[in-house]
Amino acid sequence: MKILAIESSCDETAAAVVEDGRTILSTVIASQVEEHRKFGGVVPEIASRRHCENIVWVTERALADAGCRLDQLDALAVTYAPGLIGALLVGVNYAKGLQMATGLPLIPVHHIRGHIAANYIAHPKLEPPFLCMVVSGGHSHIIEVKDYTDFHVIGRTRDDAAGEAYDKAGRVLGFSYPAGAEMDKAAALGNPSVYPLPRPKVEGHPYDFSFSGLKTAVINAAHNAQQKGQALSICDMAAAFQAAVCDMISGKLMQAAEEFGYRKIVLAGGVSANAGLRSRLTEECAGRGYTLYMPPLSLCGDNAAMIGAQAYYEYQAGVTAGLDLNAVASMPVDQGQF
Ligand code: KG4
Ligand code: ZN
To answer: Is any atom of ligand 1 closer than 6 Å to the C-beta of 8?
Structure first.
């Protein structure tokens, strides 16, 4: 089954053709990151405009790269939630236009479910059930993936997402948006013990995260050093921040795996590109005899191939949408609308 998938939830306009949920026939991503960088974050109105400008050529290129015409497809898929509403609407309306023109089934896909499904492409034998840690710019969730379309969230962030904390802490250390990858590189050169940082907990909720306090600790340390005219070691601070994030994520994830009885662990989302987190989880899982699955770096960030992968399984579960499909800015991963 060949699915043309479209993703436009944030600042990447992407299209891909994916076969049977596991094989990428083509994948095209037009990133707007350079343009948003000068504003220190994604400007929603600019994102929507760029999606409008890019969506046609990105989709045409994905079809051409796959050597596939519209009449050779079996279905269309689109990210409909969650994300920036104006950005999502571009993809949703374009996909509805394609549906009207072709008569193909249209499969609505939740963005976070897509991030998880990136692992189905990378690991052809991976099947639910498994325990998944989703860490992206907007989400930090520990999720029981009971089946391809059956999710149960057991922990979530109460404030900033992990990627958001990386971006905001990185900004005060002088890195441009999005700061995650640069922080990761700096952390590898630093000593994590120079600056003691907190590992905030959420009282009574062992699987919930709070990254905001950690971010604020970095911001305060940077401002204090500046006021006192002291030099701050960027690499040591980045290393301390990364060590705290890794401690928080791996501690809760391993505890959840034990309590809920999972030996198959999956990492997903933009922050799964983080070298420190990847090696820490590899070590922790190996020590317990758990199998760890991670997406390759090419599938960690936003892309449409992951949407095409999840769409295949949504379709098997009978999920399709009509021309009344609307975009939804926020929607829990375990409460699909369909
Ligand atoms: O999943 P994603 O591409 O977009 C959302 O759905 O939010 O995640 C983007 C986030 C950004 O916050 C970015 O800084 C972070 O992922 N990120 C990283 C790394 N690469 C990207 N964070 C830490 N280490 C990295 N290597
Ligand atoms: Zn994403």
So the answer is: no
